[in-house]
Amino acid sequence: MENRAVADLLSQARGETPADMVIKNASVVNLFSGRIEETSVALGGGLVVGLGDEYEGLETVDIAGAYLVPGFIDGHIHIESTLLCPAQLARVMVPHGTGAIIADPHEIANVMGIDGVRAMLNASEGLPMDFLFMIPSCVPATHLETAGAALDADALEQMAFWPRVLGLAELMNFPGAVNGDPSVLDKLAVFKGRPIDGHAPLLKGPDLNAYVTAGPQSDHECTNPEEAREKLERGLWIMMRQGTTAKDMDALLPVLNKITERRCMLVSDDRHPDDLAHKGHLDHLLRRTVAAGIDPITALRLVTLNPARRFGLDGLGAVAPGYRANLVEVGDLSRFKVNRVWHHGDLVAQNGQAMEFSGPDFDQAARDTMNLPQLGEDSFSIPVRSGKVRVIGLKEGEILTEHRIVETPQKDGRVAADPARDLALLAVVERHHASGHIGHGLIQGLGLKKGALASSVSHDSHNLVVCGMDPRSMLTAARAVGDMGGGLAVASGTEMLASLPLPLAGLMSDAPFPTVLEQLERLDEAAAGVSRAGEPFMALAFAALAVIPHLRISDQGLVDVGKFELVDLFVE
Amino acid sequence: MENRAVADLLSQARGETPADMVIKNASVVNLFSGRIEETSVALGGGLVVGLGDEYEGLETVDIAGAYLVPGFIDGHIHIESTLLCPAQLARVMVPHGTGAIIADPHEIANVMGIDGVRAMLNASEGLPMDFLFMIPSCVPATHLETAGAALDADALEQMAFWPRVLGLAELMNFPGAVNGDPSVLDKLAVFKGRPIDGHAPLLKGPDLNAYVTAGPQSDHECTNPEEAREKLERGLWIMMRQGTTAKDMDALLPVLNKITERRCMLVSDDRHPDDLAHKGHLDHLLRRTVAAGIDPITALRLVTLNPARRFGLDGLGAVAPGYRANLVEVGDLSRFKVNRVWHHGDLVAQNGQAMEFSGPDFDQAARDTMNLPQLGEDSFSIPVRSGKVRVIGLKEGEILTEHRIVETPQKDGRVAADPARDLALLAVVERHHASGHIGHGLIQGLGLKKGALASSVSHDSHNLVVCGMDPRSMLTAARAVGDMGGGLAVASGTEMLASLPLPLAGLMSDAPFPTVLEQLERLDEAAAGVSRAGEPFMALAFAALAVIPHLRISDQGLVDVGKFELVDLFVE
Questions:
Q1: Which pTM value belongs to this model?
Q2: ipTM of the complex
Q3: Which of B178, B180, B262 has its CB closest to that of A262?
Q4: Chain A closest CA to B362's CA: distance in Å?
């Protein structure tokens, strides 16, 4: 900021010239002291410039005693999990009081590499919510799959000092860190002295000590209080995760007390569109936290000042002079119903509706990421080579899969689905380089009765994953996803039943949120029509996640996660 | 650190290879949780690499259940106030558990500018205590005096990114900041996004809002709880000062509670050698804090994790993996008697004694800063021009002075001292550039009976200040200080009674601490022999501090602080 502009702000702060705006009759929640201050807040140049009754403004808003709190901050979220592009996401989140998110563009990085991260940054510039980024640390997630890109330490260094980049995103390769893998240490070295997020489920004792010594300063994978306490005592910031898939908050709230609280925060990790629509974002977590008996000041700190401190964001997380005027008006400190929201001093939402704004377009290159080979029905069925096969066994309500061995389901000498045993055909088609690599397998427990599902959302490499009861349906669904440039599809025979286009890297829509919600609803209906399971697309998206035990599938074949190697579909 | 070295540390952390050292049977005070952990601490490569009972070390120290706490951190101190050079200071502080100080080399900067700051950095490299620095923001302190150097924004920029430089030191020119003085804003801009310390006594309301908006993030000038609470609520970190001169701790401890505590710390600002010898350093403040009823965990946080967080020092302030092995063994958490002290993993003190170490020499240039003009008796006595003169009036126990007007004390047509009215001659001789500038005045209340005192410690420009009952004594004392290359001297007639050489910039000794203490004692005795006042050198050192009301003296003459302008000694 020019000296002249600063001097103007200071004049507003001194009360000598009218502030750009004054919010009067506010019950300001002071998170430094825990006190509620009944006062006015003066805003100038997008910042708070003062609190006090003496301020007059060019514009005045009387909020009639309502509470004024800082904009909420989500310390860890994958934008891609919302299926929305940044502009549409802002439209949804801002009315819920979200002022900033710290995003890990891990998914798009797996598809597009550096270009994907750049695209996400470009597409989130100038929106009515602060989009801050951590640089993905583990692309690809394993060597047993083909991603669209690989990011080594040199690649990370190129991105490390881009504007709005804070540090290194969740270091999922925790064995690599614990054991001093040089490629991991190289990446950590790039971000020395800056925020480095961790990801180390159930790690404890000496291995945890090694992980923390290596560099990560936070963890969002705690699932029980003992784990969280140990990690906190070893110096990690604890991100209590409450996403759409993983919900750890209730288990972890007992960790909070007046001493530990300051090192904790609430984060989403992933949040699906229907969750955003029906529950909200951090406002929902605040409601839940206070309902669970946590005092509102502590609850608010978990989504404001604490993440701001953890990430060194000096201008965020409080209502104080020099801080960004990211402000949220709420009627009470229990339901946290959001009335008005200001971002950098501008009113950006009111009564649950975002104000109109225009956002940057998503880079065109993101619309051309589906590079499929020529596909036929044969692509989804292979000749039988043995009487026994490995099967990915789903377990109700668990993300872990079982490694099962069953008699080969077959028809006309080819591996086939078997409705009687709830066995569906499964394939992962490499879709970044049109290499023609296809991994084949079988999945049990999906409840598919007929037809097929296909998706380009398939963690972490986001190849095209297809499951179905017959090759023709699978071909139909797969081709549909290809034709959309990515997305989700349900087909039966040659008929398309429903689809959700995700043309941005095959991961995100650029349609308005209501459209996406509607498409998603139709898709879920169609999926329910062919399947008995609750969320077959979720199971599909995780079928390829080669870091979670026990049996997974990639474009290179079946992955025995325990042995961390490829295994043959057929068992001798 | 090389990957290979890191991998070795991680192996120690995993417990696969023996740690460099293991401290067994420790009661580790975990400042993240407040819990006392009875465990072992593994040290490798100067860092803590793990906590746990399973560790074995190449070396083992059994501390038999004693408490282990992180090295103490003083968030704000002027090294020069101790009269010791960094190496000697480390020798004194380390046995008291001090692991790091954040120093503002404001005094030496006033004498030597950039070279002075560099000299202080060089002289504090590799010592058994971490010396971290803030860059002096206000050199010279005013335009009404002649300092040895002036540091503008460009000069600050040269120093801003030197190793061990954290940010911008106390911004004493708070009117300049509040009112948007461009030269002040330029300096703040250099340190944008980094720690900026404040200094704004009694500032409140809109002016405080403006000050905070301008950039400072802390304050160490609070003297009452209301002031501290307001500043804390506006986002400032509160440094509760307990130095040799200013003692604000008792007044400010009531501000502490579980919410506010995390934004507070205890600092020294200044600490004289006798205080260090008889009371200690932060260990003394811990004793006092706990005696005042603050729980030990909170007290410890005020001198460990809180300053570390305030300054973004990720590896300091806790006993945790990856943190520097700056550790202090104390027998209990009330008296905080320090047994052993480790710094970067090395034992550096035991039973009150620092281990031997060699420190770098102080830059030679610092020994050549006394540039006095030719002085004679005439230099200290001027012809009477009027029957009334202004007099600096001292008040018992106050740093404020009075602006008094009295009948001119005279002898043979020249201004003279007058023992009956407790009036002594006073002069400030510009000593940086041998310009010959001498400011003349009179001081009342010093209790001087005969002889003279001279000092090159004279805030903030550190010119040569001399007071006395006759010009001959003044000349003797002044010449002695010049001959020593700076220091303090007491003379009577042509006889030198005692002196304390401060040859480093005229501010610091390079003698061992016991020598300095002894010299100081003899000096105080000699001063007591010629004066009735308690600490005449202290009064002398502050007589030139042109920012504290009401009447002061500089080499340019008398300063009316209220009007912030020079005024004539004589009144018409």
A1: 0.96
A2: 0.95
A3: B262
A4: 30
